[in-house]
Write a structure and sequence with these properties.
The structure holds two protein chains of two kinds. Chain A is mostly beta strands. Chain A has strands at 3-7, 11-12, 18-25, 35-41, 48-54, 59-61, 69-74, 79-84, 93-99, 108-112. Chain A has no helices and ten strands. In chain A, the strands form two sheets. Chain A has a six-stranded mixed beta sheet, with no helix packed on it. In chain A, a hairpin with a 6-residue loop joins strand 4 (35-41) and strand 5. Chain B is mainly beta. Chain B has strands at 4-6, 9-12, 17-24, 36-40, 47-51, 55-56, 64-69, 72-78, 86-94, 97-100, 104-108. The N and C termini of chain B lie far apart (36 Å). The chains are: A mainly beta, B mainly beta.
């Protein structure tokens, strides 16, 4: 069974870059036509789709975040990553990774604060 | 800006049936929007229930079903159990980008 685990700093300063990694186990990140997604959820609020990357490297991003996002994939490490630049307090949220087979990570809280 | 709308809250009695809906600001929801449904309980990550309008994951209980209803995506729970009390989110596809609905808080009472 595929498992996903998010990792990265829990605290990021305003204007800096948020960097998270999702490590995939129990399956290959490069298999078939899979795609790998990032989603976030501010405390007490709903889910927001951030973007996704296909095994081919093709990406799709949320238009409202597109100018600040980069999602990349490292097949050698069976990981994919999220970079979000110029963060503000509004980017404080639990960040989840997921795949197109319905599997989700447990989420990681990122707080933007000085 | 595309908006996906769900009922903010619904209440159902144990053993009853309830339908949650998911509407798009762009018009009628069709299978091309590839509706997905997720369940989230407090303090937990979301769990995928339905993909592609009506397809269930291996872990999706039989009492959950997805469909298109009156121009919306719909999630129907038949024979509701107390453990079904949760937040439910739909997700629609807009040609490269996905948009979540605001979620429905389902109370079993």
């Amino acid at each position: 069974q595929v498992q996903l685990q998010e990792s990265g700093p829990g605290l990021v300063k305003p204007s800096q870059t948020l960097s998270l990694t999702c490590t995939v186990s129990g399956g290959s990140i490069s298999s078939g036509s899979s795609y790998w997604s990032w989603i976030r959820q501010p405390a007490g609020k709903g889910l927001e789709w951030i973007g996704r990357i296909y095994t081919s490297g093709t990406t799709n991003y949320n238009p409202s975040l597109k100018s600040r996002i980069t999602i990349s994939l490292d097949s050698s490490k069976n990981q994919f990553s999220l970079e979000l630049t110029s963060v503000t307090a509004a980017d404080t949220a639990v960040y989840y990774c997921a795949n197109n087979e319905g599997y989700w990570g447990q989420g990681t809280l990122v707080t933007v604060s000085s | 800006q595309t908006v996906v709308t769900q009922e903010p809250s619904l209440t159902v009695s144990p053993g009853g049936t309830v339908t949650l809906t998911c509407a798009s600001s762009t018009g009628a929801v069709t299978s091309a929007y590839y509706p997905n449904w997720f369940q989230q309980k407090p303090g937990q990550a979301p769990r995928t229930l339905i993909y592609g309008t009506s397809n269930k994951r291996s872990w999706t209980p039989a009492r959950f079903s997805g469909s298109l209803l009156g121009g919306k995506a719909a999630l129907t729970l038949s024979g509701v159990q107390p453990e079904d009390e949760a937040d439910y989110y739909c997700l629609l596809y807009y040609g490269g980008a996905w948009v979540f609905g605001g979620g429905t808080k389902l109370t079993v009472l």
